[in-house]
Design goal:
The chain is 54% helix and 13% strand. The chain is of the alpha+beta class and 171 residues long. Strands 2-1-3-4 form a four-stranded mixed sheet. Helix 2 packs antiparallel against helix 3 and helix 2 crosses helix 6. The radius of gyration is 15 Å and the shape is globular. The model has no long low-confidence stretch (mean pLDDT 92).
C-alpha cells in the first residue's frame, strides 16, 4: 500500500506485510501503533499486501485498501477492516463496502474499483516482492533488510524492531 504513516522522507522504513483477513495482523496493530507512538515521523510504516490463499477475501480486501488510499484514508480503512476479520471471513466483500461507508468514503467507487480491477497490479506487485524477500506468512516485517516473521509468534517483535530502528536512527 503506497500510503504510509509518515512523510516519505522518513529515515527508517518498516515494511509491514499484512493479509487484511488475518487475525494475527489485527493483533499486530498494537505493535504498529506503539512503534508509531515511540518513533513518530522518524519511522515510516509502510503496509505491504500479502494476501494468503487460505483467506478467500484477502485479495479483494487488499484492493479495497488501495482504493482507500486513493480516497485519502488508507490506514484508517486498514485498521477498521482488520477489526472485522471474522466478519469479513463470514460475509465477504459486502464488509469491504460497509467499512468504506462507515469511514465516509465513496462506497460506489470502491465497488467499481473491485469490479474493474484497477488496483490488481499494485497488490500483485506487493505479493511478488513479498515472495522475493521470503515472506511466507503474516504479519511479517522487514526493516533494514532484516525479515521478522510474526506469523508464528509476535513475541519480542516490537522490541526487535525498536532495537533496529534505534540503531539506525542513532547510527
Amino acid at each position: 500500500m503506497s500510503d504510509s504513516t509518515t512523510a516519505p522522507a522518513s529515515p527508517v522504513v518498516l515494511e509491514a506485510w499484512f493479509d487484511l483477513q488475518c487475525p494475527d495482523c489485527f493483533a499486530a496493530l498494537d505493535d504498529v501503533r506503539a512503534l508509531r507512538e515511540r518513533f513518530g515521523d522518524r519511522l515510516d510504516v509502510q503496509l505491504r499486501h500479502f494476501p494468503l490463499a487460505k483467506h478467500k477475501h484477502a485479495y479483494a480486501a487488499a484492493q479495497a485498501a488501495e482504493e482507500a488510499v486513493e480516497q485519502g484514508k488508507g490506514w484508517p480503512y486498514v485498521e477498521a477492516l482488520l477489526a472485522r476479520t471474522a466478519e469479513l471471513g463470514d460475509r465477504g466483500e459486502p464488509v469491504l463496502l460497509e467499512v468504506a461507508k462507515e469511514l465516509g468514503l465513496d462506497a460506489e467507487e470502491f465497488d467499481t474499483a473491485l469490479i474493474d480491477g484497477r488496483h490488481l497490479l499494485t497488490v500483485d506487485a506487493d505479493e511478488a516482492e513479498g515472495k522475493a524477500v521470503k515472506v511466507t506468512g503474516t504479519p511479517t516485517y522487514v526493516i533494514d533488510g532484516e525479515r521478522l516473521d510474526g506469523g508464528k509468534s509476535q513475541e519480542g517483535l516490537r522490541e526487535r524492531i525498536a532495537e533496529i530502528a534505534d540503531r539506525l536512527l542513532n547510527g
